[in-house]
Amino acid sequence: MSADGPSGIDPEVTARRVAMIRERIEAALKPDALEVIDESHLHVGHPGARDGRGHFRVRIRSEELAAQSRITRHRSIYAALGDLMTTDIHALAIDVED
Predict the structure, then answer these.
(1) Which of 25, 29, 88, 97 is least crowded, fewest Cβ atoms below 10 Å from its Cβ?
(2) Coil, strand, or helix at residue 29?
């Protein structure tokens, strides 16, 4: 078992979560560019971080998202992530490049 990282979460768990987020978004949205960043370490001590779920940022460029409104873009990403939004992700920041 690995030691906890700066966020208090096992780095292997974090790596698995980043990989799952990446896989689901790539499968659903076929992005031209995608970056998934774990920002959990920035939220240590935050009440929402105590449940063990992570804080992530997604930077994405996708032709499919380009024509959508901001709220529709976010809904598309949430739909792609499915149950991860309730099991592994506490907070998700989304940056969409046009």
Answers:
(1) 97
(2) helix
Distance of CA 39 to the CA centre of its chain: 9
Closest by CA to 86, choosing from 42, 46, 53, is 53
Residue indicated by tokens 């700066």: 6
d(CA 78, CA 97): 17
Number of helices and strands in the chain (H, E): 4, 3
Q: In this structure, are residues 56 and 39 in contact, taking their beta carbons and an 8 Å threshold? A: yes
The Cα-based distances of 72 to 12, 38, 64, 66, 87 in angstroms read: 32, 23, 11, 10, 22
Give the tens place of pLDDT for each residue, 85-98. 999 998 999 999 98
Q: How far apart are CA 70 and CA 81, in angstroms?
A: 17
